[in-house]
Amino acid sequence: MFEKLKTLSARLDELEMRLSAPDLYDDPARAAKLLKERGELEPIVTAYRAYERARQAIAEAVELLSDPDMKELAQEELQRAKADEARLTDEIKLLLLPKDPNDGKNIFVEIRGGAGGEESALFAADLYRMYTMYAAGRGWQTEVMSASETELGGYKEIVFRVAGEMVYSRLKFESGVHRVQRVPETESQGRVHTSTTTVAVLPEAEEVDFYLDPNDLRIDTFRSSGAGGQHINKTSSAIRITHIPTNTVVECQDERSQHKNKDKALRVLRSRLYEAEVEKQQASIAADRKSQVGTGDRSERIRTYNFPENRVSDHRIKLTLYKLDQFLNGDMDEILDALIAADTAEKLRAQGEG
User: Fold this and answer.
1) Element (H, E) at 240
2) How many other C-beta atoms lie within 10 A of the C-beta of residue 265?
3) Angle at 176 between CA 297 and CA 133, to 5 degrees
4) Phi, psi of 237 (to 5 degrees)
5) pLDDT tens digit sequence for 138-161
6) How many angstroms separate the CA atoms of 211 and 266, rounded?
7) Which member of 41, 54, 66, 104 has the lowest number of beta carbons within 10 Å of its beta carbon?
């Protein structure tokens, strides 16, 4: 580990020299690349250099222990320097963990009603509201890409985009089956029903991430259906795009413009195909190196929302909170922070075994 840190420290010095060259900014692309690399290296190298200073302080304090006049002061310094060394060792291990390349990306969230019919669709609407409230609290932007509503105001399916700082890093563990236990409004006997809704979180793929060959696409236009007043059925503005090799289908009819619907549908399609490619790559990684938290398996029941008990339970980390009402109003950080911490701990364990 420390050989690697020495190399990184030398690389940072080299970058500082290159960035001070007067002709560098004649090439903005190269300057941006070097600045990005410096930004990634600085926290690691800063921690490493502080660690080296702590090691030096330990050595000096040990020498002073033999001096009767300085012994008490040296013991205090030794204790402080050892505490710094331990803290910085842990910090460096965290900083050296491999970064998820998608963490800084915006996302598409797909919510679909599952088992439970109308009640499942109503819960899909609750989840959509929860995520949009959480996003608003963090200053993120949300945009509906496509939606299929039910008569009672639920969603058979809704796909929306979330844009902002480190969005994927916060919400990537939401993929999976979300189970709800509550008394439906249509239930006259007051019995608790259980239904499920599935959530998929896809990092937004740029064109450079995943190239879509136009020859692989079949694009159909049709008339919008659902709410929309007089505009409905007058023009064929809705778009359906089929990716022929994988038979992946995306529909979009939210915009009045055929061009806008096509643009939205292509963005969602690209991200679905990119995510499928990423999942394939992850499946090839040895099982003991995979995070237990971040499997992203959409068939896995990840969380239960129990209304009678005002309880939300995340089954992956065995965490239960009795504040379901607050959670559904966007107060999600306690569970999200615990998921991220568990994922980090698992990666550290895997790193230690490696």
Assistant:
1) strand 238-243
2) 24
3) 140
4) -95, -15
5) 999 998 888 888 888 899 989 999
6) 11
7) 66
